[in-house]
């Protein structure tokens, strides 16, 4: 079929809305008619060149929609099912999946190849015949996607699909960074640095897990206000500003967990985060930096003698096929706020404006909403 999407031909260029050819699902694949797509900072890393990807690339990795077609051998999905995309595929049979670590499924090694899991070919092609890589094997900056069934999670029909898209990346990653990989317990002190689409959900997760102090750090006043609305007990403009106050209100114990959810991380942020973290605590690194960066500054004396940890985290350290249904239960129980996460919605052809808004700090999360004329 012919459809349209936001395509990046070369790093440094703007997203271009182009018509492209999308193939029908082959064995093990599903075609989805999307309702919405979140606008995550990770896609902007393609544009800056910080994240390597074959070009041209169809952006987007956070979406929700309705199954349009199913390929041969697909038994878990049928036409009309409501689904959320998972930016890490979960095959269910590799070693990480078998031990419950679906968020680091071996099929994730394909994420930056753009080649389908089913047959190592492109399912999408540009109008001039080039193979079109799909961001995270998804490419949700288009109203239709053809993806492997390992990249989809079925959800109940009563969940609003426009909001459900957020579960595919920002909500699951943020909540899990505090609750799953962060291990927040009642009475903990948690600091979240960077209040965007991921960080705001780390705030929500830490608050719901019972942390007595949830400190949100961001230079943008609007984001600090939103953090307070969704569970933060304290807010700060910077880690330097937060440091003496966290020391005072924690009686010198500092944070159990400091979570770095900034949009663009660099090595200079690690030591300030470690300084905010108490003995035996951890710094959870969620934000992405340049793929070639090897520089992280930290005091090794402090790291060893105070038994601190620096822990990477992807998809919140949780398995998407358990995390997303669990989060939906939190939503039904009124413990997870989805409605306030989207600051502004956009049409597909407004994508560059949307990313300008993100970079200017105007959005917690921007979202593309597809209309009848997109299909």
Largest sheet: 7 strands, mixed
Q: How does the overall form come out from the CA principal axes? A: globular
Content of β-strand: 15-25%
Overall average pLDDT: 94
Q: List the secondary-structure elements in sequence, H or E.
A: EEEHEEEHEEEEHHEHEHEHEHEHEHEHE
Structural commentary:
- The structure is a single chain.
- The chain has 375 residues and is α/β, with parallel strands linked by helices.
- 24% of the residues lie in helices and 25% in strands.
- The protein has eleven helices and 18 strands.
- The strands form three sheets. Strands 3, 5, 6, 9, 10, 17 and 18 form a seven-stranded mixed beta sheet that branches.
- A hairpin with a 7-residue loop joins strand 1 and strand 2.
- Helix 4 crosses helix 5 and helix 7 packs parallel to helix 8.
- The N and C termini lie close together (11 Å).
- The mean pLDDT is 94.
List the helices and strands and how they pair.
Blueprint: E1 2-8, E2 16-22, E3 29-39, H1 41-48, E4 57-58, E5 63-70, E6 82-85, H2 95-98, E7 124-126, E8 133-134, E9 144-148, E10 152-155, H3 161-164, H4 170-179, E11 189-193, H5 199-208, E12 213-217, H6 221-229, E13 234-236, H7 239-249, E14 255-260, H8 270-276, E15 277-285, H9 300-305, E16 309-312, H10 320-332, E17 344-346, H11 351-359, E18 366-369
Parallel strand pairs: 4-8, 11-12, 11-14, 12-13, 14-15, 15-16, 17-18
Antiparallel strand pairs: 1-2, 1-4, 2-7, 3-5, 3-9, 3-18, 5-6, 6-10
Helix pairs in contact: 4-5, 7-8
């Amino acid at each position: 079929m012919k459809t349209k999407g936001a395509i990046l031909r070369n790093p440094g260029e703007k997203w271009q809305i182009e018509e492209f050819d999308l193939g029908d699902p082959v064995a093990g694949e599903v075609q989805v008619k999307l309702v919405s797509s979140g606008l995550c900072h990770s896609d902007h890393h393609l544009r800056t060149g910080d994240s390597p990807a074959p070009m041209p690339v169809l952006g987007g990795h956070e979406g929700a929609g309705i199954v349009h077609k199913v390929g041969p051998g697909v038994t878990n999905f049928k036409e009309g099912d409501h689904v959320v995309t998972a930016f890490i595929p979960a095959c269910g049979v590799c070693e990480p999946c078998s031990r419950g670590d679906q968020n680091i499924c071996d099929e994730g090694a394909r994420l930056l190849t753009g080649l389908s899991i089913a047959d190592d070919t492109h399912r999408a092609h540009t109008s001039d015949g080039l193979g079109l890589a799909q961001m995270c094997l998804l490419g949700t900056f288009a109203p239709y996607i053809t993806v492997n069934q390992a990249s989809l999670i079925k959800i109940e029909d009563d969940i609003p699909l426009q909001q459900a898209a957020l579960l595919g990346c920002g909500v699951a990653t943020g909540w899990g960074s505090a609750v799953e990989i962060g291990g927040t317990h009642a009475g903990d002190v948690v600091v979240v640095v960077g209040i965007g689409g991921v960080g705001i959900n780390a705030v929500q997760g830490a608050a719901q897990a019972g942390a007595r102090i949830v400190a949100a750090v961001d230079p943008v006043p609007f984001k600090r206000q939103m953090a307070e609305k969704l569970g933060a007990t304290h807010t700060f403009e910077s880690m330097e500003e937060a440091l003496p106050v966290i020391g005072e209100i924690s009686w010198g114990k500092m944070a159990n967990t400091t979570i770095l959810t900034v949009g663009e991380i660099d090595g200079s942020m690690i030591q300030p985060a470690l300084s905010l973290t108490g003995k035996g605590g951890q710094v959870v690194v969620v934000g992405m930096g340049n793929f070639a960066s090897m520089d992280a500054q930290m005091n090794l004396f402090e790291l060893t003698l105070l038994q601190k940890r620096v822990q990477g985290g992807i998809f919140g350290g949780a398995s998407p096929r358990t995390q997303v249904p669990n989060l939906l239960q939190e939503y039904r129980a009124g413990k997870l706020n989805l409605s306030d996460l989207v600051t502004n919605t956009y049409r597909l052809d407004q994508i560059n404006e949307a990313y300008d808004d993100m970079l200017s700090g105007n959005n917690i999360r921007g979202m593309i909403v597809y209309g009848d004329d997109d299909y």
